[in-house]
Amino acid sequence: MPITRRAVLGILSSSTFFLTAPTRADEPPTTLATGAAALRFAQGVASGDPRSDSVMLWTRAEPTEQKVTESVAVLLQVSEDENFSSVVLESMLVTSEASDYTLRAYVDGLQPDRYYYYRFLGGADSRSRTGRTRTAPAADQSADVTLAFASCQSFEQGYYGSWARMIADDQAAPEDAAIRFVLHLGDFIYERSWHTRYDGSDQSRYVPEFPDGVITDRNRHAVSLADYRHIYRTYLSDPWLQAARARWPFICVWDDHEFSNDNFQSYNNYGDRPKLEAQRRQDSNQAWFEFIPTVLDEAEEQPAHDFRAAELASAADTNAAARDSLCIYRSLRWGKNLDIVLTDNRSYRSAPCLDKHAAAALDLPMNTVTLVKIADGGSSYNNGQPPEFLPYGDGTVPNFARERDPGSCLGHQQREWFLAQLEGSTARWKLWGNSIPLLPLRLDLSSVPLAGYEDSIFTIDPWAGFPHEVSLLMDHLEAKKVTGLVSLSGDHHLHGAATINRAPDEPEAPAVAVDFAVAAISSSPTYEDAASVARKGPPGFRSLVFSEADGKELPLWNMTLSRGVLASMAYDKTGLATLAEWLGPNEANPGLKFVDTLANGYGLARFREDTMDVSLITMSDLSEPFEEAPPVRYRANFSLPLWGPGEEPELAGPTFEGPAPFPFAPPPV
Q1: pLDDT for 659
Q2: Nearest alpha-carbon partner for 458 in 486, 439, 433
Q3: How far is CA 11 from CA 179, 307, 471, in A?
Q4: Within 10 A of 506 (CB to CB), how many other CB atoms are there?
Q5: What would the DSSP string read from start to end of 61-93?
Q6: 433 with 489: CB under 8 angstroms?
Q7: Percent of the chain having pLDDT more than 90?
Q8: Strands 179-184 and 250-252
Q9: Edge-to-edge strands, sheet with 456-457
Q10: Which residues contact 312 (CB under 8 A, 6 or more apart)?
Q11: What's the pTM value of the predicted model, to 2 decimals?
Q12: Which phi-psi region, left, alpha or beta, contains residue 232 (left: φ > 0; alpha: ψ -120 to 50)?
């Protein structure tokens, strides 16, 4: 008989267990043996990837006596009530040092659209906190759903007031508006620990010394499995993150910091040239698998698979072997009306189409939209007729990308799977769990009179660096009449909302999808990075980022992205909001409805049969510890009716609860 995926779970991971509820009523209770090791559950409990009949449960059960080196017994209980008077499953599990004492229990046989409670027990009456999870509605059940979406939670740059506020508000919400699950869009941890903030001040708190990490003048970074495990354990020591994982099931993808900043495949991108770090990539994959509960091998007919260590020393292609040790792109269904499609935007992407010094070498202030299109399009640019020379300088610089394959963020195999999932979906809404922003964030430098500048891109790390593939995706979706596609994205430490047109640089092209980018849970907002660059750069760029008066900085970066560079330059010189408004909007960013680069917070999305509503929630200061959930600064609210074939999405908003950010409201006096 062929070996099924479920049958090989013990081979694939000694810390993963496959269980079926309910326990038979005539079976005696399962009990721990006398003398079983006492356990500490210092990282709490969690659940992930809920389906209508199953969910993955998780904990880390470390023995309290360090002398215990063999496997330790853990008793899992699952109940329909919080008091565990209606237990539907009891099962003895084991974990060991080999998995850093983490364990994953895939439980099926559950009822749809229902809360379940779970806990883990060890010897000497040791027990975990109680976790709560929720199964999805049945595939034929029409059900509204509210979800939270979040990204980028640096432990050091801020406290987790965003999680605390989310929990407090959910506790006060009526049951029909309660959060059913959290979509985490990546940067769950940060592999780098910076010595200071951008301005040289101390971080809010620090990750303890790494077991093996490399220390540089500016930061420390992880280099081993021990380092990555250490970071996850530290992050999960936070009580508010623990409470969130215990309250809701999480659906997770990764971005870059789970391995290495701005990475692609198994390459780090710290220096001027990418560096292959296959063993480090495999170690980061293993740690993610150990600490993030996901349904991978356990799901039938999915490309995803559990961690499978490769022998890198003997592999012909150590890059691919390390990368492919774990596969996380997958899909889930939430009732009749919502399909959730999750992509991996790092493991299969091409190398950056331009190196870090390309613009400077061509005497350009930034990478222009045209330069990125030529470099990313490669041999396919201009319908397969790329220029021999780049259109810059004296026109004699060879086009280095002329023979290059077009760039890809998803890779061919994942892209084909992604499009097939969307085209084959029968759900009214298709939710794309997308770790990087799709919305346009360009600078309309071409609007500056007599300067000879071109519209430019501030960073090519997100989808802005892959315009060829964006056009492929949007063209396909339009041609196949796929509607109801909403991307929820992270990574950029800003709130944003935009309709996405068929061609990134054609303002008149029809809109095909909608993207909501969510600000960081706690990581420093994008503005701080831009301002740090501007303070060291030329005055012309500085006026696009902030205006100085009476020794204070007024942030203008939001205005630059939404209204345009002329609006910010005029406001910097005159302080006249009316003039700035008249000079906008930024035509290089068609469809951009809202952006706030100074925000920390999270998002809430509510899907109904024919409409969805989104709130982008911005928190007050998160730099100091707290006892009660910090207050919200403002909420930016949007509504989106479902659109049909041949129609364009019509995104309404933002409307604000609380003081709107500048330039959507006047600056504070």
Answers
A1: 96
A2: 439
A3: 36, 11, 42
A4: 11
A5: -EESSTT--S-EEEEEEEESSTTSSSEEEEEEE
A6: no
A7: 85
A8: parallel
A9: 367-368, 456-457, 442-443
A10: 278, 279, 282, 318, 321, 322
A11: 0.97
A12: alpha
| Separation CA 145–CA 142 (nearest Å) | 10
Query: pLDDT tier at 545 (50, 70, 90 boundaries)?
Result: very high
Predicted confidence band at 152 (pLDDT cuts at 50, 70, 90)?
Answer: very high
Q: Are 157 and 204 in contact (CB under 8 A)?
A: yes
What are the b/e assignments for 26-60, b being 16+ CB within 10 Å?
A: eeeeeebeeebbebebebbbbbbbbbbbbbbbbbb
Q: Encode 316-333 in three state secondary structure.
A: CCHHHHHHCCCECCEEEE
pLDDT at position 7 over 70: no
Identify residue 90 by its one-letter amino acid code. E
The encoded tokens of residue 48 equal 């992930």
User: In the numeric block, which tokens belong to residue 1?
Assistant: 């008989």
Q: Minimal CA–CA distance to 105: which of 535, 116, 409?
A: 116
Q: Is 187 helix (H, G, I), strand (E, B) or coil?
A: coil
Residue count (the chain): 669
Q: Which residues pair with 20 in a beta bridge?
A: 108
Strand order in the sheet with 429-434: 330-334, 338-342, 429-434, 485-489, 511-517, 495-501, 592-596
**For tokens 């499978």, what's the residue?**
308
Cis? peptide before 387, omega within 30° of 0: no
Q: Which pLDDT band, with edges at 50, 70 and 90, does 537 fall under?
A: confident
Beta strands in 552-649 (DSSP E): 552-555, 592-596, 601-607, 611-619, 632-641
The bridge status of strand 192-194 relative to strand 214-215 is unpaired
Please report the pLDDT score of residue 334 as a whole number: 98
Tokens standing for residue 88: 């539907």
Helices 225-235 + 278-291 axis angle, to 10: 30
HSE on the CB side for 434, CA within 13 Å? 26
For 83-121, what is each residue's pLDDT tens digit?
Answer: 999 999 999 999 999 999 999 999 999 999 999 999 999
CB atoms within 10 A of CB 399: 17
pLDDT tops 50 at residue 12: no
pLDDT at residue 292, as a whole number: 98
Q: How far apart are CA 666 and CA 85, in angstroms?
A: 57
